[in-house]
From TrEMBL:
<protein>
    <submittedName>
        <fullName>HpcH/HpaI aldolase/citrate lyase family protein</fullName>
    </submittedName>
</protein>
<dbReference type="InterPro" id="IPR015813">
    <property type="entry name" value="Pyrv/PenolPyrv_kinase-like_dom"/>
</dbReference>
<keyword id="KW-0460">Magnesium</keyword>
<dbReference type="GO" id="GO:0016829">
    <property type="term" value="F:lyase activity"/>
</dbReference>
<dbReference type="InterPro" id="IPR040442">
    <property type="entry name" value="Pyrv_kinase-like_dom_sf"/>
</dbReference>
<dbReference type="InterPro" id="IPR039480">
    <property type="entry name" value="C-C_Bond_Lyase-like"/>
</dbReference>
<keyword id="KW-0479">Metal-binding</keyword>
<dbReference type="Pfam" id="PF15617">
    <property type="entry name" value="C-C_Bond_Lyase"/>
</dbReference>
<keyword id="KW-0456">Lyase</keyword>
Length: 404
């Protein structure tokens, strides 16, 4: 699996100064934690999950969460479990037959309802659990944390030596986390509970929809989650507790729940960037690309990045490339990061950037530089004259071709 593997060799060379690296569920944890990226949720009741993966139905898909929780009705749970097991068995059979290569699988996760369901699913899957990258733990609390984490540790302790490590991704989304009077104690207790199991924690995820529900609010498509003050404050505290560089946790951005809009991205995607890339027909491509996205999503991804979050929960495949494109490292970021790391030898404290528009300080900016380098491995680095719009243009060209 590799980001932007749908690009031709010529397109990749045109766009990328450093191309993304390949990965699968056996890759190093540090790389995998960043590679989760745009995690597409799909109900486990879908009967075409295996077929869609094999056919490459969703271009650019690298992370897929099979949802047994909120996406499944309470009266469909057993059906969803049976369907999920059947779909994973089919994938396993195709791998044994050589129809499907293991390294071409997206990272697969299962969002369960409870530790008891997780145990049941592992028993039903048996050796096919090796197809998974991990489990998502919804409504992760002080009360259920140990049960989830112990199951995870026990699996990894007794799994076959050739099987990949299974990881956990807890979702912080309960009242105890967002209510001010209990927030700090809850976050610190959860962090303490995670500590012995840190090697198996791939992401810390934020359940902004459940948080919003507790206050009867919902962001509109014009707004970001950071525009909802009570949610923003909680996210900032989650980052403060789990985002510290010495702890090594990766925090993922909350779900964007809108997947269609008639509004264009008036400010976030500038028309001249499309026209620079494609000439006059860029105007038409811009309309085709951005009319189905929202200004709020682009702004929210940008704010996620600025606050140190990497990746995002998504509920529609049209968001895949948009989220991924915004995670590619810019040439300027990469030059700054490499310069800071290369000159962190005690001889210089500060120096002008290669772009001659900022000062790079060796010690204060070192942690940032290392995070940029880690992200660059997974998502690649754009050439100096390229940016995320270049990938959006590529999508627009495909759509224009199909429609014509």
């Amino acid at each position: 699996m590799r980001y932007f593997n749908y690009l031709s060799e010529e397109e990749e060379q045109l766009l990328f100064y450093e191309p993304p690296v390949s990965f699968d569920n056996t890759s190093d944890k540090e790389l995998l934690s960043i590679a989760v990226g745009a995690a597409l949720y799909t109900p486990a009741t879908r009967l075409t999950i295996a077929d869609d993966i094999v056919s490459g139905k969703h271009e650019g898909l690298t992370s897929l969460v099979l949802d047994l929780e909120d996406a499944v009705g309470d009266h469909q749970v057993e059906l969803a479990e049976e369907c999920l097991i059947q779909q994973l068995h089919r994938l396993s059979a195709w791998i044994r037959l050589g129809t499907l290569l293991t390294h071409s699988l997206p990272l697969l996760f299962i969002r369960v309802r409870s530790p008891e369901q997780m145990s049941k699913i592992l028993t039903m899957l048996q050796e096919d659990a090796a197809l998974l990258t991990g489990f998502v733990f919804p409504k992760f609390t002080v009360d259920n944390a140990h049960h989830y984490l112990q199951l995870l540790m026990d699996y990894n302790r007794y799994k076959a030596p050739s099987a990949a490590v299974l990881y956990g991704m807890p979702i912080l989304e309960t009242a105890a986390v967002i209510y001010r009077e209990s927030r700090l104690e809850t976050l610190l207790t959860i962090k303490k509970l995670l500590e012995p199991f840190k090697a198996y924690i791939l992401n810390i995820r934020i359940g902004a929809t459940d948080f919003s529900s507790l206050f009867g609010i919902r962001r509109s498509s014009d707004m970001t989650i950071y525009d909802l003050g009570v949610i923003r404050d909680c996210i900032m505290d989650i980052i403060n507790v789990f985002g510290r560089i010495e702890d090594g946790y990766v925090i993922s951005g909350p779900v964007w729940e809108y997947f269609k809009s008639d509004r264009s991205l008036k400010q976030s995607v500038q028309q001249n960037l499309f026209e620079d890339a494609m000439g006059r027909k860029g105007r038409r491509v811009k309309v085709q690309v951005v009319n189905r996205q929202t200004d709020g999503l682009l702004r929210e991804i940008a704010l996620d990045k600025e606050n140190g979050l990497i990746g995002k929960t998504i509920i529609h495949p049209t968001h895949i490339t948009l989220v991924q494109a915004l995670l590619v490292v810019s040439h300027e970021e990469y030059m700054d990061a490499t310069s800071i790391i290369a000159n962190n030898n005690g001889y210089l404290g500060v120096m002008k950037s290669q772009y001659a528009n900022k000062m790079n300080e060796m010690k204060p900016h070192l942690n940032w530089a290392q995070r940029i380098m880690n992200r660059s491995k997974v998502y690649g680095v754009f050439h100096e004259n390229q940016n995320f719009n270049s990938l959006l243009v590529r999508i627009g060209q495909e759509q224009a071709y199909v429609q014509n």
